[in-house]
């Protein structure tokens, strides 16, 4: 008889530990707290061979308990039933003292008042333990039996193990919620900052335009336009950042199209003067790519507008072609007289800036010298990383 009992106890212990280990694994992976609480009460009831269990959550103020999860109860109780958590409540006692409660015969229980819903369900015995995480306790985990039965220390330890895993999962859930809230708040702040930066850049652009009109033509006007177009590029970048849901995934077709049109407008170039041809495959890039990419395109536009179209007529072609999963090829072309890139090496701030920006992008910048030889314009090709 003793051998059979020992075998049964070992099998029960192994079964309980296996179930607890599986629950612990789920607790690390599942973000749905209600689903996890439900799984806990089901497994706790099964582990003690009882068909009813519940998690009673302490409500703000600590004087009430809500049935947050349960199994074996009448429909409508879970999520709605609220009971007192005072000193005459078994759940309240556990909540305040941290000690488990074992009531093997609630009909003759003198320490605590028995809630009506337990009597209505024919509960004879119960055991509960605290769910204590960091800070205030979450509530209590309780198993209720319709048959009078005894509970031992092994039962208490088993139930407390579930409660401890639950407490850790609840703390993790609260931390995740807090981090999500913080991330949302920072995202809102970032968008507000982006909006302000965009507006400030717009103001700077307007001020530069006023200065350009005052100084008229000449070297000063030319330099102001170069500075202004760079500021305008940054404004377009921030405008697209403000519209993007994720600053690490800015759609390049929309961004490049708006940038090209804005640069032409900034320089006062009308559509009948310079034709813009644009095409772009679907691709995205983060802010670390879009800023230097935009500045590089700006330098090409400035060079073309200032030097490629002496008669005020011409064409600029911008093409972005995806090449593989994470690379793209940008080709910028104008149909002006072109120039010998080798002859101006080391000269021309704009060309030097383009070389530096290409290096910053981790790409390769090449110039088509054949077009210049044929007097057919300038072309720059950039290989760059995309998403």
UniProtKB/TrEMBL annotation:
Chain coiled-coil ranges: none
Signal peptide: none
Enzyme class, first EC level, given as a word: transferase
GO molecular function, one term: protein histidine kinase activity
Annotated catalysed reactions: ATP + protein L-histidine = ADP + protein N-phospho-L-histidine
Boundaries of every Histidine kinase domain copy: 192-387
Record flagged with keyword Endoplasmic reticulum: no
PROSITE patterns: HIS_KIN
EC numbers on record: 2.7.13.3
InterPro entries assigned to the protein according to its UniProt record, in alphabetical order: GAF (IPR003018), GAF-like_dom_sf (IPR029016), HATPase_C_sf (IPR036890), HATPase_dom (IPR003594), His_kinase_dom (IPR005467), Sig_transdc_His_kin_sub2_dim/P (IPR011495)
Protein's name in the database: histidine kinase
Originating organism: Skermanella aerolata
């Amino acid at each position: 008889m003793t051998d059979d009992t020992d075998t049964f106890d070992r099998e029960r212990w192994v079964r309980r530990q296996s179930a607890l280990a599986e629950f612990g694994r789920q607790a690390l992976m599942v973000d749905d707290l209600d689903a996890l609480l439900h799984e806990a009460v089901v497994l706790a009831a099964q582990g003690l061979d009882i068909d009813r269990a519940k998690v009673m959550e302490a409500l703000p103020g600590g004087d009430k308990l809500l049935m947050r999860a349960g199994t074996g109860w009448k429909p409508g109780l879970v999520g709605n039933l609220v009971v007192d958590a005072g000193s005459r409540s078994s759940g309240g006692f556990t909540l305040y003292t941290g000690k488990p409660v074992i009531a093997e015969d609630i009909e003759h229980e003198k320490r605590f008042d028995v809630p009506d819903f337990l009597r209505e369900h024919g509960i004879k015995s119960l055991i509960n333990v605290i769910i204590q995480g960091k800070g205030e306790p979450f509530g209590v985990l309780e198993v209720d039996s319709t048959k009078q039965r005894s509970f031992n220390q092994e039962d208490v330890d088993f139930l407390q193990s579930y409660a401890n895993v639950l407490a850790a999962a609840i703390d993790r859930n609260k931390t995740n919620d807090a981090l999500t809230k913080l991330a949302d708040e920072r995202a809102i702040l970032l968008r507000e900052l982006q909006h302000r930066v965009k507006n400030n850049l717009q103001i700077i652009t307007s001020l530069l335009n006023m200065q350009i009109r005052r100084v008229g033509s000449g070297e000063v006007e030319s330099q102001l336009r170069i500075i202004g177009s760079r500021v305008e590029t940054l404004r377009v970048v921030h405008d697209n950042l403000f519209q993007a849901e994720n600053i690490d995934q800015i759609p390049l077709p929309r961004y490049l199209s708006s940038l090209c049109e804005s640069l032409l407008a900034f320089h006062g170039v009308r559509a009948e003067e310079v034709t813009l041809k644009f095409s772009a495959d679907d691709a995205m890039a983060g802010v670390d790519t879009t800023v230097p990419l935009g500045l590089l395109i700006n330098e090409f536009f400035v060079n073309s507008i200032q030097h490629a179209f002496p008669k005020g007529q011409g064409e600029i072609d911008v093409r972005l072609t995806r090449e593989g999963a994470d690379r793209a090829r940008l080709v910028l072309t104008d149909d002006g007289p072109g120039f010998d890139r080798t002859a101006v090496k080391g000269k021309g701030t704009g060309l030097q800036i383009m070389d530096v920006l290409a290096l910053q992008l981790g790409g390769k910048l090449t110039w088509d010298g054949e077009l210049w030889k044929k007097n057919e314009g300038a072309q720059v090709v950039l290989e760059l990383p995309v998403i």
